[in-house]
Amino acid sequence: MTTAIDASTNPEVNGTGRERKLSTGSDLPYRVLLIVTAVLVGGLFLAFIGSIVQESIPGWRTVGWTFFTGTNWNYGAHIYGALPLIVGTVLTTGLALLLAVPVGFGTALAIVFLIPRRFQLIISSIVELLAVVPSIIYGVWGYLTIQPWLDATVQPWLASKTNGHFPFSGLGIGFGLMLGSLVLAVMILPTIAAISRDVVAAVPNEMIEGALSLGATKSQVLRKVVVPSSRSGLLGAVTLGTGRALGETIAMVVLLGGVNQTHPIPVSLFGTTGTLASEIANNFGNLSGAAGLGVLCCLALVLMVIIGLVNLSARVIVARNLRKFQQ
Amino acid sequence: MKKTLRGTVGTAVVAAGLLAAMVPAGAASAFKIDTIMKNDLTLKASTSGLNMGGSSFDAPLVLAAQAQWNADNGKTAFNTYATTKSGTGRANAISGAYNIGFSDFPLNIAGADVGAGSSDASETTANYVQVPVALGGVAIIYHFGSGVSGTLAGILKKNPLTLSGKVLGEIFAGKITNWDDPAIAKLNPAVVVKKVDLLPNLAIAVESRTSGSGTTFMFQDYLSRVDATDFPTASANAFTKAAATFGNSGLLDAAVHSTNGAIGYVEYGYAVANGETPISLVNASGKTVTLTEAGIVEAATVGLTTIAKHGGFNTTSINNFSINNQVGATVYPIAGFSYAIVKKNQTDANTAIAIVKFLDFLSHQGGGTPAFPATKSSSVFGQDLADSQGFAPLPASMQTIARTLISSVTSGGKAVLSATN
Q: Do B242 and A285 touch (CB under 8 A)?
């Protein structure tokens, strides 16, 4: 508690005008309460990261650098090469974004600018509803409905059209990268669409009307005014979608088919793979003792770092955009 | 089914007689039910929230037995069996997350679970009791899908698809990659009509369990006996040529069903539950056998005599518990026992009572013989449910061994089941 009060009297915290405005005597309890919660969240975060790092130390001792270079993950033989999992995580998320971002942005723009007002609410509600569907339900849907369709119809067709060349080489069995990214795309699409909709809807009408009055066509307005001015918000939507995709676990466990031992790094969209998150779930009950659980924490730590990097780069881009905008 | 089963169980009992001699002498004779009763083995009302799980091979049997046991006792001491895989069963039995962990092969058989080389060097297998609780067979399942002609479907209905151990091994080793391979047609003369192989030109997709599966171990132990070139040793690792891997039997079963050209393997119970016709196998006597409960019983009967030649049943070496690839006209060649693993010295006496009672219930048949006082009212015990769940009842000798092992569980240094009490 004392540290919290110390923090409240910290000149740095009190530096800005807004802070000073709040510091009237009767507000003190609120100030203390808010700062305590802020400190609590910060402390929790540090404690959480700290404990994962600490737990992972025996894991690093066991695996060393082969963790990042090895392509064989076999807990039974105590071989822990996590490269296929890192690649699998990045690939599934990347492919999902490739599919979901254009459709998500398109849906958002359509809802705000093109669809007649009475349908807007219906489409908006559907998008919001899809955004809150738990991921296991998407997983089950992918497993029961999409996999047999890919296996029996889509993949044989793709293979015959390309003569089994890249990126549709090898045996298509439905499960794998294609199924995983497809379902992942459907999963993050509503998140991206819902947030993008709010972002583009917030573009000031004056700007749009100004552009229209200068003779811009509707598509020019969207491309030159709406999208550029809401860029940082759209990036936020993508970042949230990326976060969900990177961390998606249970659906990936059932859809990706596991790291293929002949091609640990997929060479085809038909290839099977695994992700950091799915492998943590797969191995949770299998690894025991400090070293075994340590290896799981290594996976967790790498996943945290990847998600952290995504968030950080999003922040950097937003900050740069903001500077440009202000100039 | 029932009648033939009784017959074969009869033979099993005879064979069991031979084996009874192998059970440590003091143990077998000391355990008369009425003397065991001296301990107060009442299941306390406060005993609840205990955990068990692991092997998905065992799941159909244990889930059915658990439901029966709960109904008989009028209370739920254990949370519902967690269907994961054998590796999880062993790891959680060691960590204590499960009070009872289930695995299709014992500790330290495929890789170090405890002691040197494991992540917990301070432990030894002597700290654990490993009780045989199930006898099952591995069903090889496949799926051709929509591309199959009506003629072929008709033929396969009358003549189930047949494979030899060697061909099965080569398929799982990725050497035979298409269903129209001549080696497969050769074993299935009925599908060759007017010299044309009706089996589809369809790539074989080997679907495997993720590493740590006891079903995989049982299957690979079999393959190592029929195709040593491709499978020099049994392991629980995923098949290296697998097109995809799945975390438990249910997922693998469903995946095989939805993938054209897929082949996979699950415990017989899954095949029974889903009404599938597993692939028939050519056994060690050169006879083609379909997977039936009688075939599993026969595998155990012959298998136990083989085990006797190796010095009797124990959980320390494969040849002392494996009953794969036995010789006999009606033997189904891929079968095995599965085990419940518990800590030998239980810290909590009431937990120990629940564990001991449940395991004894699970590993025995009720019926006429006075069984351990797990339940008062019911004569249906765990092994009586084997028939309906796609398992075979444990042979009588194995039930005896199970009881001996269960009675070695202690609490506070005292046997939970004590002849002297």
A: no
